[in-house]
Write a structure and sequence with these properties.
The complex is a heterodimer of chains A (325) and B (226). In chain A, 39% of the residues lie in helices and 1% in strands. Chain A is mainly alpha-helical and 325 residues long. In chain B, 19% of the residues lie in helices and 41% in strands. In chain B, strands 3, 4, 5, 6, 8, 9, 10, 11 and 13 form a 9-stranded mixed β-sheet that branches. In chain B, strands 1, 2, 7, 12 and 14 form a 5-stranded mixed β-sheet that branches. In chain B, strand 1 and strand 2 form a beta hairpin. Classes of the chains: A mainly alpha (325), B alpha+beta (226).
Chain lengths: 325, 226
């Protein structure tokens, strides 16, 4: 075989393996931008995804084996914590922020409401070690997992090594979370030409594009930047958001702009869950920033409801997967 | 024929062995130029203290001849941990014994690695050298007790980290050396301790100006010793 043909075959093989990745796991519609996560550097792998999924639902990650990731990020709530303004962790401790919904994470670069986490791999360290969330540490998690033969087998299958490390736990959780893609709401079906908006939804869409799209940019319905939306600080929490991360006063009360997808599943709203209904949210904006008539508000809400993605919320591939250990 | 092959084998192995030379570098911490161990009392001027934990990252350790890169030594990122005596030794088989007259390394982790996700080995977050509440490696960690510390249980905890812009605490160390197969590098903690007591800063756990000022001392605390 000549050198040229080897190079060519390697190239083709590279292309094939990349297509596999996108076809099998990372399916997203044409109206979506390219993900920011580097899948060529860290390709998805079905055994790692399954391992991450099992870990996500396993309370072994918490100090007293009572709280799993899914305790505050429930699949039926688009991986948010419905009905809890602030999330609660071990020993019924109450946190200071509303657990954000988890989807389309492959399009995000910074994590948490204040962007304190710079890579999806490192995100899980925060809840694992937070005394009010899981109250454990990555070392403790790793030693507990290393005592489980079932987990050793799963890590062997996923990483080719029985020894469980912190990096492997984090990378497995990443793999599962990257597959949480919400891209099949009515809005998406309209974009794909499979459905159409009602008159009211279409009016809402026009109003949305005029008034909301700068921050909640379609099709992800967020720029994933940080902004101050005019909410006064809750003096019982004194949470100044991004300021605490950057130390720059211009970032005071800046929080990550959340996506508007799956709103009906992920109430209450805002970083501290202070609003229970969409109407309250909309009233906050119309009183402070964008004047809208009550008809216009109804139209916008009709449009926002087209961002609910039941296919994602009820996708059985994202659900609890039981192992005995 | 068999003997000839055997001789050839001997010849090749000996040539390889001759060409390869091991360089070994050892790091040892001191207070007042006295080598220290964990949890023992030391005196620095009128400060009495003991160290319970000393960990820091040595990265991109390399030999240079003037400003010309000669060879890298060891792994890209190496965690020094006083708990683990072996972590104070870094050795490397040197393929070609080229001359070198200075050694360079960073204390800390580069910003690119900082934001590239989880890594195995010395960079695994299980070593307690990663901030979980706000992403970032702790570049240098010094903990201990002193009766002069007005803190809970007289403890001090100095965690120096930060990788972004002006808060970056990675520091380059350059030490002139006489080429040798063994190099001993002293980590003289005096300046760090004096700064801590001088500024009465006994708890440092986040990026910022205090961490930056502490990191600025790093290039001065390493010395080559015989």
């Amino acid at each position: 075989m000549t050198l040229k043909s080897i190079v060519f075959l390697t190239f083709i093989w590279g292309l094939m393996s990349f297509t596999d990745i996108t076809d099998l796991w990372l399916t997203y519609p044409a109206h979506f931008p390219n993900p920011t996560f580097d899948f060529q550097k860290t390709p998805l792998d079905s055994t790692k995804i399954l391992l991450g999924r099992i870990l996500f639902y396993d309370p072994i990650l918490s100090k007293d084996n009572s709280i799993s990731c899914a305790s505050c990020h429930s699949p039926y709530n688009a991986f948010a914590h419905t009905d809890h303004e602030l999330s609660h962790g071990i020993f019924d401790a109450i946190g200071t922020r509303n657990a954000p919904a988890l989807f389309n994470l492959a399009w995000q670069k910074e994590f948490m409401w204040d962007g304190a986490i710079n890579h999806i791999d490192m995100q899980a360290l925060a809840p694992i070690s937070h005394p009010g969330e899981m109250g454990s540490s990555i070392n403790e998690v790793v030693s507990k997992l290393n005592e489980s033969n079932a987990y050793k087998d799963l890590f062997q299958k996923a990483f080719g090594e029985k020894t469980i490390t912190g990096a492997k736990v984090l990378k497995a959780l990443t793999q599962f979370q990257l597959t949480l893609i919400s891209a099949n709401a009515k809005y998406d079906k309209v974009k794909m030409g499979k459905d159409s908006f009602s008159l009211q939804e279409n009016n809402g869409y026009i109003l949305f594009k005029k008034n909301c799209n700068t921050c909640h940019q379609e099709p992800l319905f967020s720029t994933y930047q940080f902004a101050n939306n005019g909410l006064p600080v809750d003096t019982s929490l004194n949470d100044f958001g991004r300021w605490q991360v950057t130390g720059q006063t211009k970032d005071s009360l800046h929080f990550k702009i959340p996506s508007l997808r799956n709103l009906s599943y992920s109430y209450p709203y805002m970083h501290d869950g202070r609003f229970k209904t969409l109407r309250e949210v909309l009233n906050h904006y119309t009183e402070q920033i964008i004047p809208l008539t009550s008809n216009e508000k109804a139209d916008i809400i009709a449009f926002l409801l087209t961002l609910n993605d039941a296919d994602f919320v009820f996708d059985k591939n994202n659900k609890y997967y039981k192992i005995i250990h | 024929m068999k003997t000839a092959i055997f001789h050839l084998f001997i010849l090749f192995t000996s040539v390889t062995l001759d060409a390869q030379k091991a360089l070994s570098i050892s790091f040892f911490p001191t207070i007042g130029h006295t080598s220290i161990v964990l949890d023992s009392n030391y005196q620095l001027g009128d400060i009495s203290l003991s160290i319970s934990n000393l960990k820091f990252y040595i990265s991109e350790l390399a030999l240079y001849n003037n400003d010309t890169f000669v060879a890298g030594v060891g792994k890209k990122h190496h965690l020094f941990d006083m708990e683990l005596p072996t972590s104070g030794f870094i050795s490397q088989e040197m393929a070609e014994p080229n001359p070198f007259n200075n050694i360079r390394f960073n204390i800390g982790i580069d910003s690119l690695t900082h934001s590239a996700g989880a890594f195995e080995g010395d960079l695994d977050p299980i070593h307690g050298m990663y901030w979980s509440w706000q992403s970032g490696y702790i570049h240098f960690k010094l903990e201990g007790t002193s009766p002069a510390c007005p803190t809970r249980q007289n403890k001090f905890q100095i965690h120096v980290g930060g990788y972004q812009a002006t808060n970056n605490t990675i520091r380059r160390v350059t030490l002139p050396v006489v080429a040798s197969s063994t190099l001993n590098i002293e980590i003289a903690l005096d300046k760090i301790i004096q700064r801590m007591f001088g500024r009465q800063l006994f708890q440092m756990m986040s990026p910022g100006p205090n961490a930056v000022a502490m990191a600025d001392l790093f290039p001065q605390i390493f010395q080559i010793r015989k």
